[in-house]
Write a structure and sequence with these properties.
Layout: H1 6-32, H2 36-65, H3 78-90, H4 96-105, H5 109-133, H6 137-163
Helix pairs in contact: 1-2, 1-5, 2-6, 5-6
Length: 164
Amino acid sequence: MTMNIFNDLEAIKLAIAIEERGERFYSQSARKVEDEAARSLLQKLAEDEKEHKAVFEGLYQEFLKSKDRFDDEYLYDQDVTAYFNALAHSLIFPDEEEQDDVMDNLQSLESVIRFGIQIEKDSILLYTQMIISSRLTEAKDAFRRLLKEEKRHLIDLQSYLKRQ
């Protein structure tokens, strides 16, 4: 029996890139803000993104070990392909060059927090779509776990903003 793992691997690679960019964004933001509570929150978010990346990297390596057992002759569903292509272009968090520009334009703590809220919302949408599209139980479980954590990030950022 052949299985289709290829688009799951691609989705996991996409998630790795997103989490890596998220770690960089939150780390840079933490260094930029003066408010100690905000710095602590942003550092925690950066650490969480680093852990998320490690989860996806481990999952990716596990699937690569058995890749030769899977049929890589596949066709994407056109809607899913279009969605992932659009996400791949922006990858939720901007790339390094764009991120430097974004960081320069985020002049206030509130703008950093609001940007974080938007990217967490985008991540929630992405992981929801990945749960729907994935064919692998292990991938679905990882996406569900990280979806829950991204929702917590969103709540934490919104709570911080309400305190201001």
